[in-house]
Here is the input.
Amino acid sequence: MKIFFRITIFAVLFTLSCQLQSQNRFGAYGGASLTGLSDGVLSNITVNPPLGIHLGALYEWELSEKIAFRPKVAFSQQGDREDSQVGTTFGSFALDYKLTYLNVPLQFKFFSQPYFLAGPQIGYLLSIDKGDVDAGNLDSSFDYGVSVGIGYDIDPFFMELTFYQGLSTLITTPDGALPLGGTDDLTNQVFQVSVGYYFTKKKKRR
Here is the structure.
């Protein structure tokens, strides 16, 4: 965890140290999220991951012709937002943890058409609504992980597909707490499809 935050701080300080010779612009975006809880990277334990929404704003700071720093701030619905499903095929279940976060993805944008996104993300829990299957309180109100994605600019609009994998444990379930049994450290996992708009047009290079 300490290494993760050191990398995040270094990324921010590095971009702040760059000279403002770049093209900077603001934008807003929103869209649908396929959310769930996982017990490992790309391992989703949520049955039929539900849809949530996300709304946010971004600032794009061009560092070079092919690299830009693209921090965002976003309201995001996450967690397992479906009704409990206990005892279905293969013993599937849902935890009913409806989570709402204020997220700050600190992404770097590479290339142009299409462009690729990668960087750390931190989040703060705004609200939680538990359903019928209660595996306990969250271990922390703070969440952190890695966000990657791909996008395409149709100036002044843009479209993005991103994936977030949480690395911080949300819930540590004791033996027998879940219908499937066993002990799991559960984390956030989110797929997002976004459509956005730049408030300032990109200047043409001379």
The longest strand covers residues 24-40. Residues 163 and 191 are 5 Å apart (CA to CA). DSSP finds one helix and ten strands in the chain.
